[in-house]
Amino acid sequence: MERSRAVTFVHSGTQLGTVIGMLLSGVLCDHGFAGGWPSVFYVFGAAGCVWSFAWFLLCHNSPSTHPRISVAERQYIEKSMESCQASIKPPTPWIKIATSGPVWACAVAHFANNWVFYTMLTCLPKYMRDVLQFDMTQNGILSALPYIGTWFVMTGGGQLADWLRAPHRMHTTTVRKLFLAAGLLIPGTFLIVVGFLGCNRILVVLAIIISISFAGLSVSGFAVNHLDLAPNYAGTLMGLTCTLATVPGIIGPQIMGALTYHNSTRSQWQKVFHITTAICGFSTAIFLIFGSGERQNWAVMPESAADGRHNAVHNTGQGMKDSSKLRAGKLV
Q: Is the pLDDT of residue 286 over 90?
């Protein structure tokens, strides 16, 4: 029941990174070392290297192998998780995954979400500069504002989604479809509005903030859905949908560049926003028709593997008890 909150909290790091990146990039381009814009690559590249070492020290395979977790927290997590490390792991049902309607609906929704994210991430600074005539420092600050809003909406959406999923409120499938629809249709609608606001800076920036901010609701729809459909294969599903969702990062900027490179006018940008809205609408329809928030039949763990998982957890607990007795005996 904490699934939406956990996933949205993790994904919100992307938004915070985007905010810091937007703000710092604008300043570095105007005032940074090494000629300005090259300093952006040096600073962020160095930050990535430093964090990788922290990740190696902090990341562990499971709660049972974490050296700094309390016993109460470990037991709570292992009891709450539907998928623990099992001694017998069932084979991945590749054919059933490839032919699953809900999996494809999740993948299409992931594609649309990333189309909005990548397109706006790459084109927003250009739109701010070419159409609204902001300088680089102003550009960085204003381009960061929508992602601050996304962080608040995303984390708040995760709390609301899990509250709605509580018993006697709403089915998980209904919650996933509701948040995915809101997270794609609201941004798409306001992008259309942007195209008709002319060069009114205040209204355009406000519409963009609303559009990108509410895209954070979709995370409580598609990003958590992998765990709904197949807890034991969630990593596999995430890898597959992420592969498809990477495509917008490749072709989105190409389409934007083809439309605005030689003629970066408001009418050309309207075409970019219309394409984005059309993708959002189509993907929402697919998810509403084929999406699901229930565990799929092919994702149910066989009894042999479930027994192995139970024994593994039992043996881990028994081993800890024996270790405690041994330490107590030595102390005596």
A: yes
> Comparing C-alpha atoms, which of 234, 215, 232, 214 is closest to residue 224?
234
Q: How far is residue 195's CA from residue 176's CA, in Å, rounded to a whole number?
A: 30
- Confidence (pTM): 0.78
187-243 per-position pLDDT tens digit: 999 988 887 887 778 888 898 889 989 999 999 999 999 999 998 899 999 999 999
List alpha helices for the chain, DSSP H: 3-31, 38-58, 71-80, 94-98, 101-130, 136-164, 172-195, 201-214, 225-229, 234-245, 247-260, 266-290, 303-331
Query: What is the Cα–Cα distance from 136 to 140, expressed in whole angstroms?
Result: 6
pLDDT digits (tens, 9 = 90+) for 113-142: 999 888 887 777 777 777 777 776 777 778
Number of domains in the chain: 1
Of 14, 3, 2, the closest CA to residue 150 belongs to 14
Sign of the CA dihedral running 283, 241, 180, 259: negative
Domain range for 212: 3-53+98-295
CA distance 248 to 254: 9
- Say which residue the tokens 């909005």 belong to: 116
**Measuring CA to CA, which residue among 223, 207, 230, 255 is closest to residue 100?**
230
Residue 309 lies in a domain: no
Asked, for residue 182, whether it belongs to a domain, the answer is: yes
Retrieve residue 267's tokens.
């009418």
Burial (CB < 10 A; 0-12, 13-18, 19+), residue 279, is buried
* Measured CA distances, 7 to 1, 34, 152, 158, 161 (Å): 12, 38, 14, 8, 11
Is residue 169 one of the residues assigned to a domain? yes
Q: Contact at 8 Å (CB) between 94 and 313?
A: no
Task: Give the CATH number for residue 246.
Answer: 1.20.1250.20
Q: Is 115 within the bounds of a domain?
A: yes
